[in-house]
Specification:
Blueprint lengths: L2 H24 L3 H13 L7 H10 L4 E7 L3 E7 L1 H9 L6 H15 L1 E10 L4 E13 L6
Antiparallel strand pairs: 1-2, 2-4, 3-4
Helix pairs in contact: 1-4, 2-5
């Protein structure tokens, strides 16, 4: 089996879990639980810059991230790649709350301010648009966790 074939099998397995099993198990709580899980997962990392975050996202098979816009308290990130295209092709209603939560927590680490994320798919352009908003009035301290 080639590396590409192995990666396709991995994507198929992940997609099956993410887009079939979890929705059946979690029902209407799926988005909230996956978002929280993404935030929890990101807490296991110590990001020093956006490039390090991008590498982690790729290693976790979430896809590839590109910072499309960054304002003082807002980030717009595109999530792309074979995993995204495959999931959207099979299920246009695929849930990306796990990725949004992960990125929100990572941006919170990098910015030092409480951050929340939301996501929207673009099936025509085969990407996920993730928006992160940071609250400059809520500085994160070690005691926050």
């Amino acid at each position: 089996m080639t590396d590409e074939s192995n990666q396709d099998v991995l994507f198929d397995g992940l997609a099956l879990i993410r887009d079939t099993l979890l929705p059946n198990l979690l029902k209407e709580d799926q988005s909230a639980i996956l978002y929280w899980a993404g935030k929890e997962l990101a807490r296991d990392f110590a990001f020093s810059d956006f490039q390090e975050l991008a590498q982690a996202v790729k290693r976790l098979s979430f896809g590839t991230i590109e910072l499309k816009e960054h304002k003082k308290t807002a980030y717009r990130i595109h999530l792309t790649g074979a995993a995204i295209e495959s999931r959207l092709k099979r299920n246009q209603k695929a849930d990306f709350s796990l990725e949004a939560g992960f990125l929100a927590e990572a941006i919170q680490q990098l910015s030092g301010y409480y951050s929340e994320g939301s996501w929207q798919t673009s099936t025509s352009q085969q990407h996920v648009d993730i928006r992160i908003e940071s609250d400059p009035k809520e500085k994160i301290t070690e005691q926050t966790y």
